[in-house]
Prior knowledge:
CATH architecture of the largest domain: 3-Layer(aba) Sandwich
Number of strands: 14
Mean pLDDT: 96
Strand content: 15-25%
Number of domains: 2
Radius of gyration: 22 Å
Structural class: alpha/beta
Bound molecules: pyridoxal-5'-phosphate
Strand order of the largest sheet: 2-10-9-8-5-3-4
Low-confidence stretches: none
Number of helices: 14
CATH class of the largest domain: Alpha Beta
Largest sheet: 7 strands, mixed
Distance between the termini: 60 Å
Amino acid sequence: MATNAPVHTGRHFLQIPGPTNVPDRVLRAMDMPTIDHRGPEFAKLGLEVLEGCKDVFRTKNPVIIYPSSGTGAWEAAIVNTLSQGDKVLMAETGHFATLWCTLAKKFNIEVEFLPGDWRHGASPEQIEARLREDRAHTIKAVMVVHNETSTGVTSRIAAIRKAIDGAGHPALFLVDTISSLGSIEYNHDAWGVDVTVSCSQKGLMLPPGLGFNAISDKAMAAAKANTMPRSYWDWHEIIGSNKSGGWPYTPATNMLYGLKEAITMLQEEGLDNVFARHLRHAAATRAAVRAWDLEILCLNEDEHSPILTAVLMPDGHDADRFRQVTLDNFDMSLGAGLSKVKGKVFRIGHLGHFNDLMLMGTLAGVEMGLALAKVPHRAGGVTAAMGVLTGAEAKAARS
Ligand code: PLP
């Protein structure tokens, strides 16, 4: 029956910074009969994905896989390592750091929240200074969001590790890699992170539904001594079952089939190539935004996110109305501005299962949307991005 609603043909452009496009290969891998999660076939799958995850987090230690969203994995990191009344240091990088802080407070964790302007990453200098002051070592953990998905700013995790070491402070280091794992360089072991929190629906190219905690020996020891009541999230029992490829409860079987395929895809491309691809697409996107004469929310050159670009709307123009125009006209979803920046920014997601032409389609959709929504801008963003992708600018600079 014909209606007045626009009929969209071809594929929807899902250009939010997660959930991301799920590759057909992953969808096909998940399209399997659900098997006995206590049988030998499942145990093989369980052991394979648990081992494969270590590669992606770059750790030799166990990785916990929960049937949960990222928020569950946030909670798991807290209830396993911290006790009621413990003090932690966090940095206000944006909406997601604020949510993690709120969650921690619900468990009676005392959070010292270093204020931020949502345009910079967590400051290693500020963290080091605060830890140096804490001579009695009352701060039990430093908690940082690696890639702040609400602002397009990536914090420098290796530098923050150095800052903690520089202060000679024994605090645990808890890092949210929910929108960075499998797309931005990350090294759980080499960067001395104690708990890395992540989930399935971003760089891992899976649907939402899996949460992760990668844990250090120091975090395991903290968990053993920790008095916080916990059951579903408790690492101890899960690690015990995982040794033989099982879980203490019914795992998300078909998501694990998908995870196995997604890890294979990341290994085939090579993680370093995956990171380089995201950096290149981010550089092309920023060239487009600058050519449009619009402002990028992130202010630090060395903190631009490789996986999304948050763009400020000119005064008097509503980002959500602009996003509605791109959705209605081009069947493309762009990320909304969240809480403090609602209506003020839109976010271009360029991560996961993605290539040059998908990026060009995305940027063409944005440029056409800006024109249709009558947002003041200069034309030529798409051309500028093509210049970055084809290396024309680099060649011109050499000749
Ligand atoms: N942390 C970051 C950086 C995120 O981007 C998100 C979601 O987008 C979350 C945490 C919350 O994850 P979830 O919505 O899967 O619970």
